[in-house]
Amino acid sequence: MLKPSWKALITVLALAASLLLAVGTARADKLRLKDGRVLEGTVTKEVQGYVWFKYQVGSISQEDMFKPDQILGLDRDTAPATPDTKAAAAPASEKPATRTGTGAPRAAIISLGAEPDKEMVGEYITADSLERCIPYLEEEKIEIVVLRINSGGGALLEIQKLSDCIEFKLKPKFRVVAWIEHAISAAAMTAHCCEEIYMMPGASYGACTGWFGQLTAVKGRELEEVLFMMEKISARGKHPKEIMRSMQIMDPLSCTIDSNGDVHWYQNLEGQITVNPEQRILCFNSEDAARFKFSKGTASTYEQLGKAMGYAEVDWVGKKVPDSPYPLCRAEIEMRKFRDQSFKDQSSLREYFTEYRLSIQLAQGSPPEDRGKFVNRARQALDKIKRMVKNNPNWALFIFNMLPEKFKDWVDEQEELLRKLIKK
Amino acid sequence: MHMLTQLKRGAQLLAAVGLSVLGASATLTAGVSLLTSGAPALAQDATQDTLILKNGTTVVGKILEETPTEVRMNIVVAGITADVRYPKSDILEVVKAAAKPDAAKPAVASEKPPTPAPKADAASGKTKVYYFELTGWFGEDISETPVRDAMNDAKKVGADYIIIKLDNDWSLRRFGNPDDIKDDVGQFDQLFRAERLEPVFTEDLDKWTKKPTVIIWVSKAMGGASFLPFLSSNIYFSSEGKMGGIGHLQAIFGSMGDKVVREKQFALRLKHAEGKAIEGGYDPKIVRAMARDEYVLSVRFEGGKPVLLERMPESADEILLTDDGEGANADDEEALARGEGNDCLTLKADIAYKLGISKGTADTLEDLVYQLGLSRTSDLIKGPGNAIMKAWREAIEDAKRSLPKLWREANEVQVKAPGGYNERTQARGKRKSILTQMQQIENKYKEALNLREIRVPDWNQIETIKKQLELEQLADKPDKRR
Predict the structure, then answer these.
(1) C-alpha span between A298 and A201 (Å, rounded)
(2) Most C-beta atoms within 10 A of its C-beta, which of A122, A279, B330, B422?
C-alpha cells in the first residue's frame, strides 16, 4: 500500500498527465449551421457571436467566418475557444482588449487615403505606415479595425505589401473591415483581401486595369502575373475571382441569384443578370455591390456601420473633433501626420534640393574659412531629405528612383562630401 | 445613437403595456419587431405601407422617409405610436400603400418624399427662407469658399429653408466668343471639381443644430454644375431650365492608348458620378444616360411612377430617353440645334418632373415659394448670400489681374545706385516681399485660380525662388573699403 505522500504525488502526476493529454488531444468543436451543414473543427476566434471556424474540406484546411444568423448552435469539445495560435503566442499586452464595462467591442477607424491630394497607393497609402499603426491599436485595446478607404489608385507594386500587412499582421489580431468611400484600381486591390467590405452610399469600387504613360495597358507576362496575384488576394477576401478579373480586363461577368439569395458567378453572359457586359471594365457602385452581395452593406456614418456589422453598440475609440466625421484614435492621428508630412515633403522637394545644391556650389566656390555657413545650410537641407525618406520609405523609389539601401549609400556619399568641404 | 434612443423608448412603452419587444437579431435596430408576426403577408392592408423583413416578419405603418440605406416608418402598436428605422439590408420588400389617383395632376413621378412642411420660427412664428444665386463660371465664381460662407450666413440667421438658384455661365464669353457652349458638349471631368463643393451640402449641414431644407432651383446646371443638384433631395426647375453637359464620356480620350485603359477611365468616372446620384436618392441610370452615348434608356409610367428600362421602347406606352447614338441613331444637326438630341440625356423641366427628379417648375422666386407652401408663413432673406458670391467673383478677377502684375514687378526689381551691398540687400528684400504678397493671394484663392492660365509660378515655386534669394544673401558680403 502506498504511503499517503506517494499517493498524493501520483494523484498530482496523474492530474498533470491528463491535463497534458487534454492539451495535446485534437479539439473537435461542432458548428451547426442553419443551412443544414455540421462542421467539425476548431473555433479560432469569437467576437460578439461571430465565429471564426477552422475545418477540413477534403484534405484542405479552411477557415471561415460565420455570422450569428447563420449559426444554429456550437458544441464545444473542451474549454471555450482559445485565441488563434498567433495571438496565443504573443505576449499578453498584444492580445485583444478586455471589454469596457458596456460590453461593447472597441473599434477604431484608420483612413487610407484622403482625396484629392493625399490618396495615392504607394505614396500616401503604404504598408509601412499601416504597420506602424499596430502598436497604437494594441495600446488602445482595439478589437475591430475599420479601414476607411478613399483613393483613386496608385502603384501596383505596393498592393502585395499592403495585402500581406492586412492578412498577416492585422487580421490575426483584429477583426478587419473595409469601409469604402472610393476605392479605385490599386485601392480596390488593396481592400480586396478584406472579407468584410462595406460601402458608403456614394462609393465606387473597381476599375483595376493596370496602365502607364499615355493610357498604355500592362500586357503580356506582367499582366498575367498581376491577374494571378489578384486571384490569390481574392481568395484571401473570399471573393469570387471572376469579379476582380472583370475589374482588370474586359472579361464579361454575369450572375444568377438563386431562391436562397446565393449569388452564382459566371465569367461570361450566361447568368441571368449581366454585371459587366463585353468590352467594359467593371466598377461597382454601392447599390450594385449590395445587390450582388459583394458588400456586406451600405453605411454613410460610423454609427450605421456598427449596426450594419451586427452590433447593437460599438465603443468607437478616439477623440471627436469638429472637422472629422469619425473619432480619431491614436493610430489615425499618426496616419494623418504621416500623410501631412509626406505631402509637405513632396510639395517642398524642389525647395529642399535647390537649397542643398546651391549651398554645395556656394561652399565649393568659397575659401575654406567661409564654407562653414554654406555647409550648415547644405546639411540642414540634407537632413530634410533624410527625414522625408524616414517618414515615407517609398519616396526613395518613387522620387529618387533608388531602392532604400541605395538611398542610404547616396546619403553616406553626401555626408562624406560635406565632411570634406569643411576640412581645412 | 438617436436611432437607438428612439427604439429603446419604443421598447419601454411596449413593455409598459405588457407587450414584449421581439428582436430579429442580436441588434435592437435590425428589426425591433414592434410588429405583426408570422410569414410575409400575402394580402397587405392596401391603405398602409408594408415592410417585409428578411426574417419573415412584416411591419405595417406609414413610411416617413426612404434613403439609400434605411427606411423610417411610423407604426402603431396597441395604440402607441413609434418611429422606427429599418436598415435596407434587413428588408426583403417595400410595399407602398395603393396610390389614390389625382385627376388634377398629370401622371408624374416623384418617388421622393415631399419637401418637408414649413417650420415656424419661435420668435416671429414665421419660417425663415434664405435665398441666394450661384452664377458665373463653375469652379471659379461658383466655388466652395463663398458657397460655404453664404451657407454659414444662412446658419447664423437660423434659416429653415435655403433656396439656391443655380445658373452657371455656359457661354464662351470668357474666350472672347458671344455664343453659348452647345448642350451636347461634354465636360464630365468637372465632376472632380464639383466634389470639392460636396461637403458644403452634406457634411457641413450635418453640423447644424436644426438642419435646413435645401432646395436647388435649376436654371442652368451644365457641365460640372450638373452634379450639384444631385446633392439635394429637393430640385426644382425653371421652365427653360436644363441640367446636363456631361455627355460623350466615351470620347474624352479620343483614340489615345489602349481601349481597356480607356474603359477603365470611363468606368471609374461613371461610378463616381453615379455615387452622387445614389447619395441624393436618385436612380444612377439617369447619370449613365447623361454621360455615355451608347447607353439606351427608356421609361414607362406605372401608377404615375417612372420605371426606367435599359432598352429601346417595346410598346406605345414606353418613351425613349436616349438611344445608342450609332449609325442612323446618331443625332443630326437639326435635332441638336433644336435641343432634341437623344444620344445623351439633358434634363429639361418637363422630363425632369416626369422622371421624379424635379418636384416642380417655377419661373419666379415668388412662384417657387408658393409651391413650397411658404408664401404666407415665411420671411424671405435675400441679399447677404448674393453679396458674398459677388465679393468673391470680384476678388477672383482682381487676383487674376494682380498676380501677373506682381510677378512682373518682382522680375523688374533693380539694384539702386551705387549698387553696393546695402542696395543689393534692399533689392533682394523688395523682391522677397513682392513674392510673399503673391503667395498670400494664391493661398487665399487657390481653389479657384488656374495659375498656369495666368502664367505665374505657384506657391512652391515661389518658395524655391525665395530660398535662392536667401542663399544669395548669405553668399553676399559688404564691399571692401578702398
Answers:
(1) 6
(2) A122
Q: CB–CB of A319/A310 below 8 Å? A: no
Contact list, B474 vs chain A (CB under 8 Å): 362, 373-374, 377
- Model ipTM? 0.76
Which among B14, B9, B8 is positioned nearest to B28, based on CA atoms? B8
And the C-alpha cell for A147?
479601414
Q: Which chain A residues contact residue B471 at CB under 8 A?
A: 355, 358-359, 362, 374, 377
d(C-alpha B51, C-alpha B40), whole Å? 9
Could B263 and A116 be called an inter-chain contact, meaning their C-beta atoms sit closer than 8 Å?
A: no
In one-letter notation, the amino acid at residue B46 is A
Residue A169 is classified by DSSP as: I
Give the separation between CA B1 and CA A303, rounded to whole angstroms. Answer: 7
B-chain residues near A215 (CB < 8 A): 253, 256-258, 261-262, 265
Question: How deeply is A151 buried, as exposed, middle or buried, from its count of CB atoms within 10 A (0-12, 13-18, 19+)?
Answer: buried
pLDDT for B48 beyond 50: yes
Handedness of CA A135, A139, A145, A150 (dihedral sign): negative
pLDDT in tens, B410-424: 999 999 999 999 999
pLDDT digits (tens, 9 = 90+) for B67-110: 666 788 877 654 556 667 787 767 756 777 755 444 333 333 44
Q: How far apart are CA B470 and CA A362, in angstroms?
A: 12
Q: Give the nearest partner residue to A373 out of B275, B468, B474, using CB atoms.
A: B474
Of A160, A161, A192, A162, nearest in space to A178 by CA: A192
Closest CA to B263 of B274, B252, B247, B278: B252
Q: Name residue B436's amino acid.
A: T
A252 within 8 A of A246, measured Cβ to Cβ: yes
Q: Quick check: B214 and A176 in contact, CB under 8 A?
A: no
Task: Order across the sheet with A60-66: list the strands.
Answer: A60-66, A50-57, A38-47, A29-33, A71-75
Q: Give the pTM.
A: 0.75
